[in-house]
Amino acid sequence: MTAIFRRFTYLALITGLLLALAIPALAQDDIPLEDFTSDAFRISGVRPADWPEVQPGTYGRDPASGDPTALFQQALPGGRLENLQQSLGMGLQVETWPEADETLVTDALTWNLYQIDVESAQMTVRTMTALAQDDAGAYLVLLQALPDDFDMLVEAVFMPAVEALIPLGPLTFDDSELPYVVEDVTFDNVTADGETITLAGTLTLPPVDGPHPAVILISGSGPSDRDESLEPLASIRPFRLIADYLTREGIAVLRYDDRGVAESTGDHATAHSGDLASDAEAAVRYLLGRDDINPEQVGLLGHSEGGLIATIIAARNDDVAFMISMAGSAVRGAEVLIKQNERSMLASGMDEDRVAETLATVEAIYEHALAEDWDALEEALAQLNITEQLPIYQDVWFSYFIRYDPTPDLEQITIPVLALFGALDVQVDAEQNASALEAGLEVAGNEDVTVVIFPDGNHLFQSADTGGVDEYSTLEQDFLPEFMPTIAEWLLERVDIQGE
Q1: What DSSP element (H or E) covers 369?
Q2: Which of 21-35, 269-283, 295-309 has the lowest average pLDDT?
């Protein structure tokens, strides 16, 4: 089951081998290790030399034969331990993390160690997990194996991997030579629970006196930093690229770390789209209070779930001057995810008959989730051998997302709207969502609506082959050549640039 954009990216990596068929344990007394460096996860360490990498940061002993034995060495750059624990806990069937079985202090990090057995219909898989955190992010080393050779693998593979893992630190960028002003900023928001959180971000300003038009960037699902960094899914940093391009065109851009990520406070794990919309509205209020920003020309650009959030805000906030939806959904979340599953399975090369069969189960799963019929949902998940994913459907973010229908909000939006889609996007289907968006805005009487579908574009607006998530990292780590000019030209027709 896929989730919109990347909220469960780490869950997918961690649980990817848990459903393998059980085979007799493979005894191996001597397991050679080799050094490695991962730029995507920003870590270095050691890994089994003869175990192939089956997914980024995932090394299987003999995955072709169905052996479930695997070592995971991953990180969440810019993220916090609770973000990683939330996703990992769903795969390991851990709702509340227990006290650590052991604490291990290495030269680089202090690790908490946990031994947890995971039950599936086929077998019991034993796991040993090490979790750590520093200022740059959260880190994971996880061994999964059958009980027979678990102890041997802990000593031969897991412990050396934990002891050798070294964080490389965050990627740094030299902003000193940029032809515009780069300012670190903070602004506050009061959550639904009455907690004041501080959101940290970067405001880029044209190098001339204002007031400037401004765009606020709203990230897709999952804990995202201000650049919308996608490692290890891909190394492209969409929001850094957008901010750089638009600021050079004379438009101020504010991008910020999601609540609970990097330098922003708060708890991302308990937030849904409505909560994150209030954070973006706090960004609007912040810009309206600055003398160098034109208060009549502050707009939103949201990517994926961020496009949905922009829709929520634009429908209720008269201070928003324009809206750009970048692969944003325009139908109820459950419909988005059903189509997402269909597109993803087809992009992976799955037979059409099998896709149709699986899709019937997927549709039943979302019906049960919408009805909160958890017993029926668990039974449906068992048909796909993914009963361990039940907590996903009970998650506060997921529950809100599958229920939210953007249509009533779209029918209230009369400001200029630019909607961008990739025809090869398997996560937010262009045809499904473009038509729904246009229909809603037509009811609103909106006379300034532009919809652009890029024939070769995927969910990240790269030039794609299949559009599948698995190819994101293999493509050029930049936007389609015509993507940013399309946004800039649309904006420049609707805002006033200083110094011209």
Answers
A1: helix 352-371
A2: 21-35
